[in-house]
Amino acid sequence: MVRWPAVAWVTLGPLLWGCALALQGGMLYPRESPSRERKSLDGLWSFRADFSDNRRRGFEEQWYRRPLRESGPTLDMPVPSSFNDIGQDWQLRHFVGWVWYEREVTLPERWTQDLRTRVVLRIGSAHSYAIVWVNGVNTLEHEGGYLPFEADISSLVQVRLTAQTSVGPVSDFYTLPVGIRTVAVTESQFLINGKPFYFHGVNKHEDADIRGKGFDWPLLVKDFNLLLWLGANAFRTSHYPYAEEVLQMCDRYGIVVIDECPAVGLVLPQHFSNTSVNHHTRVMEELVRRDKNHPAVVMWSVANEPASYLESAGYYFKMVITHTKALDPSRPVTFVTNSNYAADKGAPYVDVICVNSYYSWYHDYGHLELIQLQLGTQFENWFKTYHKPIIQSEYGAETIVGLHQDPPLMFSEEYQKALLEQYHLGLDQKRGKYVVGELIWNFADFMTNQSPQRVLGNKKGIFTRQRQPKAAAFLLRERYWKIANETRYPHSVAKSQCLENSPFT
Ligand code: GCB
Hints:
Keywords: Lysosome, Signal. By secondary structure, the chain is an alpha/beta fold. 26% of the residues lie in helices and 21% in strands. The protein has helices at 57-60, 90-93, 109-113, 154-157, 217-230, 244-253, 274-291, 311-327, 371-386, 413-430, 471-486, 491-495; strands at residues 7-12, 15-16, 19-22, 38-40, 43-49, 75-79, 99-106, 120-123, 126-127, 129-134, 137-143, 149-152, 183-185, 190-192, 195-196, 199-203, 234-236, 256-260, 297-304, 333-337, 353-356, 390-394, 435-440. Strands 16-17-18-19-20-21-22-23 form an 8-stranded parallel barrel, surrounded by 5 helices. A 6-stranded antiparallel beta sheet has the order 6-5-7-1-10-11, with no helix packed on it. It has a 4-stranded antiparallel beta sheet with strand order 4-3-8-12, with no helix packed on it. Strand 18 (256-260), helix 7 (274-291) and strand 19 (297-304) form a beta-alpha-beta unit. Helix 7 (274-291) runs parallel beside helix 8, helix 9 packs parallel to helix 10 and helix 10 (413-430) runs parallel beside helix 11.
């Protein structure tokens, strides 16, 4: 007689954010249906950071062979969360290296006994290299954070009975909410359902006090209520793909998304190698596979602020963008640039120019009077060179909430407002011509590495990290609602609380 395991234990490499056991996988969000059950593994996990000198003690001592508590002390770690933000330990706050997560799971008896049941372990996201052991067996490896990966673990949790011949085909089905819309780009317009669309929105980060990047429903709903309050109709998932639940909300609320690949910091010549191209295209495949069914996603962004002025960047972006277009011919593709229009080698391959600029912030400090001229010149140069629609994909000013200074000085709430006002005047001169969007940097203050440029993180939010408005939020709110009422999509956020009313139906 063979006994089946009632308990499976799972040891993970780096940070795990969320996972689910499902009867069927297929990389898409594992929805429940009459043929599918889900078991969430969110909750408290055992955790250990490998502080050893070479940071490989865990592999040398094979911590994955036994329950983690048997190879040394463990901490309790909530999943999803960022381990750095949870404890009081300075070393862990700054730790980069292997960390180990483990959890014992009791499986429903049917999953382990009924051989027609397929058991799939799916990790929503683990940053940035993950190895997964199930019952001590190396089951799954994945490189690159933010995107899901999965493995069929049926053979690891089910008993091999001699009656295997009785296993027949299983029918599996589930339904997806559907939204139908077209997206197209002309020389000067971004069209949704054939109508010109103007992006008036934000850049975000998955970030909040204590939970760090960990997914959280109350935070997500609060953020969507703030987007509604603001009159925003779009955001960019800067600088990585966000949790799938975020895109589900965008579909429901009619928020348009520029979905970005986690390619930030491609700044050295060696980053534009064949190895990088191969990895980059693989990540784009994972991103498109995961998010292709979301009507909210209207454009792919393959990178943020690469050194696209380098000679080698031309071939590199040609390859990555061509590959992405082949994966999904229905959506435009871009990357976000901060290079000079005359030097950018990747721009010839994008459908929309997305350009970041920080006039009167990272240079010309305090010279707000220059912004309109600088912005106008920026737009004209890009347009006359490429004849493509342009989105101002980032602009903003660091602002410490409650700091006041008039006449405005940097870091005060007055300076952020005045800077935005100047940008808006510049944007309004080109809006309706070929500038098709503006995305403020940033929706909310967020945590960063420490540096002399950052006061407890990046403070360019129009909301604080706790989601309270700074003065600039009211300015932006007035502008966004005015634009919303002028354009043909006033209902985007305002009225569409469900898919039936969104612009995607
Ligand atoms: C940028 C980057 C973003 C930074 C921002 C800033 O250009 O894309 O990651 O956070 O500037 O505030 O410096």
